[in-house]
């Protein structure tokens, strides 16, 4: 929610007017989150190996609270507000890694697929909450109030973590023999393959988040209200597909196959995106077709996301090594957030929608090949 809090139009416009800067500069307040992740994900793994998962996650909530509080104080000063967003981004860069370690610890024997599926809905759920707050509470209390809401929520979560979470890894075993956990993580070839596939998924995910309304308006010639309405189903479908992906993987015990299926669904979706408009001959069917398209690509993304996270978190039994594995995957995640949508949008604007979706198709194929290669590596290991 901290990441997305400036996304609603009401907050974006109010912030732009308050600071006296254009919306392009305001967007930098969002992208700095991902830029922080590129550089801090691996150090996050190092820090967890040194101080332990519980201490780190409590510290991250304190940092998130501090970042939001600084944002509230410096809301009218763009450089200092940008600095506060960078502080918030520290927690964003490391939190996913610690959360995955805990989920793997809690559900080591069974249930990790369902748990990761639920956890994977965080982005879509946060988007849903933030956009609802922007139309209810913020008009009553002012756009600055969202920084205070999130400061309080971060502090409450920090206190909850202190009393509820148990120590694992380094903090539980203070007399452990020193090990080079990073070297162990980097030497596993399978994590690099998973990182490649995860990068492909992220490239497509954040491209669709960015171009959704634009695509519905420019490619399918829909009015603004319908374009936004159809594109918004991506968030809702993300919650549904994320939960179902976890359950399906948990029941089938086939994360690699489900992950590959996810990339196939993404590939089909991007290949039919451009000709889809010409196939609609009945206006009454257009709603079902457009929503069905968004659900299809959403299921593909959720399948691959959950599968990769399950596989990456299961490569090692040591929480510290698992932390580094997740950090490597997340580094690619943050990198592709920064690279994916700008590159695709540039291709679309300079050439055509067909070329843009051809690029996405190529990315989906790379992700699919990654899952196939991973399966081959696993098969050889089992022989």
UniProtKB/TrEMBL annotation:
UniProt keywords, alphabetically: Cell membrane, Membrane, Transmembrane, Transmembrane helix
TM helices/strands, residue ranges: 26-49, 56-75, 81-103, 115-134, 146-170, 191-209, 229-249, 256-279, 291-312, 324-345, 357-377
PROSITE patterns per the UniProt record, alphabetical: MFS (PS50850)
Gene Ontology cellular component list: plasma membrane
Coiled-coil region(s): none
InterPro entries found in the cross-reference section: MFS, MFS_dom, MFS_Efflux_Transporters, MFS_trans_sf
Membrane-topology descriptor: Multi-pass membrane protein
Annotated Major facilitator superfamily (MFS) profile domain residues: 1-379
Localisation: Cell membrane
Keyword Nucleus: no
Gene Ontology MF terms: transmembrane transporter activity
Protein name: MFS transporter
Lineage of the species this protein comes from: Bacteria, Pseudomonadati, Spirochaetota, Spirochaetia, Spirochaetales
